[in-house]
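[User] Could I get a sequence and structure tokens?

[Assistant]
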Amino acid sequence: MTQITQILFRSHVALLLLIATACSPEPPSDLLRVSGHVEATEVRLAPEMGGRILTLAVKEGDRVQPGQLVLTLDTRDVELALRRARADQAQAEAQLRLVMAAARPEDVRQAEAQINAARAEVSAAQSELAAAGQDLERFDSLLKTNSGSRKQRDDAATRRDVAKDRVTSSESRVKQAEETLARLRSGARREEVDAARARVASIAAQVATIEKQLGDTKLMAPVGGLVTGKLVEAGEMIAPRAPAVVIVDLDHAWADVFVPEPAVPRLKVGQAAMVFTDAGGAGIPGTISYVSPKAEFTPRNVQTAEERSKLVYRVRIAVDNKDGVLKQGMPVEAEFTLQ
């Protein structure tokens, strides 16, 4: 073979190898890039109770921290109700202590003295009744012999009736005094103690309810984030549980992207990903936190394998967005290395 022939032969071989290389399929890429958008938790803050808004401590664009004061309501009516309830509570507790307390010696001595006085009054009234009865009998005899007047006899009858009534009332006072002494010695009845305790418990529940209402006049931010909506103004009346402020937690935003069906089996929760915005740059690192178990926007007439391969599944990527680069609703792209 001549030198020229060898050169031509080598050139043809090289050309054939180049053509074969160009015609062979490219090796499959393990890098997947898909699109989606940014989502974030949105919280609509609303006070538990209604009233007049005293102060509104935030405005749109402010960043708030968890537990930060957002809104206060007028507390005057609630504070008055609380003072009344606490006064009733003190009275009920004092009444319970009085019911449960044992009789004091001086109370017993006073009750015994009242019994003795009432019995002495009964004795005096009985003596008066006996004397009035004798006078009535004497004037009756004198009237029969025409030695006395009817007026004297009637006056004696009146004194007798008054004395009889006095005896009855004195005996009633003796009975009342004896019942008082017996109650002091035996203490309060069980029913009276139970009723006093129930009243104390009922008023304590009222006080706790009003104290909670007083705390509910201050609205605190449950999460940190950016104030994106202010729905009321200071001085306005607000209804219970009516939204007042909207907060978006952008620090913990995430990207929802849509992955073709063939790539889904090659993704798993906890896998690393990079999120890119239209502004470019190096991207924001994140991790897959959720892979939807069902396809989205699936047509009903999907039949063939080729058509099924066009289905997409929602994949959530958690990122650290403390720098605030990602905004709610922003379009993004994500890049994965398929497993």
Notes: Residues 81 and 258 are 57 Å apart (CA to CA). The chain has two domains: 27-47+243-337, 82-211.
